[in-house]
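To the team - alpha-L-arabinofuranose complex, inputs and output below.
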Amino acid sequence: MSKHPRYSLTLLCLALLALLCGCTAPVPVEEPYKEAIVVGFSQVGAESDWRNANTLSMQQAFSASNGYRLIFDDAQQKQEKQITAIRNFIHQGVDYIVLAPTTEKGWDTVLAEAKAAGIPVIIVDRMIEAENDSLFTCWIGSDFLGEGRNAVRWMDSHLEDRPLRIVHLQGNIGSSAQIGRTAGLNEGLSTHPEWELVYRASGDFTQAKGQELVEAVLTQGIDFNVIFSENDNMTYGAIDALKNAGLTPGKDVTIISFDASRHALELVMSGEISYDVECNPLHGPRVENIIQRLESGLESPKLTYVEESAFDAATITPGLLESRGY
Ligand code: AHR
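Output:
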């Protein structure tokens, strides 16, 4: 519960004034009003369209008109900046801390500090590896391993007629999104001896690095026919690199991507991306709902996986594209 419910100063003054004047006019009934709930949100950064949609969703959910004061911190993909932000939130005495963690490890000390200060911590999007789960109140996010397995199932059923030579663009190493999607692909590689991993490197989920990596692959003359790219922005960079080299994405190279943001779905429709596994960024209302439950003294499930889908040319529709909010 937020810590400082208090009564309206204005109403108090009015009542005092009425008393002093001996006024008989009815004094309005005092209604308790709640101060805004203060939420400190430590965001990973602004590395992708997904991340920007996530930031917007959180800012809209934790607006002043909804009764919140949001303290937003962009960590520029650096864990040390997130740790500093959390310490600042503790120092400011926020009511809740929301953390979208860069990587899974390294949170025990700072979360123990939040716990000692009595501030509930909600983890969103990626997961953390904590020495005990009492260090956070609950988590809501994606099943990243499920996403990776989903992609592998599609590759298995749609690309079985030819040997695959796979270029793997990973997200930032140590993040749940990278760990889960990579583990999914690794399972596929271990059960398909005809699939060959010809290149693997991290593009940190950014478009610029996605392009750089594929340019490096092309310069090295590596033979490949599949790009397994762990997010849409790296995919956009990869597509630019392929086109600049005179190759046709979707024909010369099959592209598997993650996020399923609107522009990527347009590319699924035009055939440049063959399969895009959804990762839903719209966590603002979900986290807000958790906070409202906690405010009402209710518990929230410790772990909540959001529902997600995936799209290829056979399943994408103009209506779906229209309704895509991000
Ligand atoms: O954690 C979610 C991942 O992080 C998204 O796939 C990616 O685009 C983002 O940067």
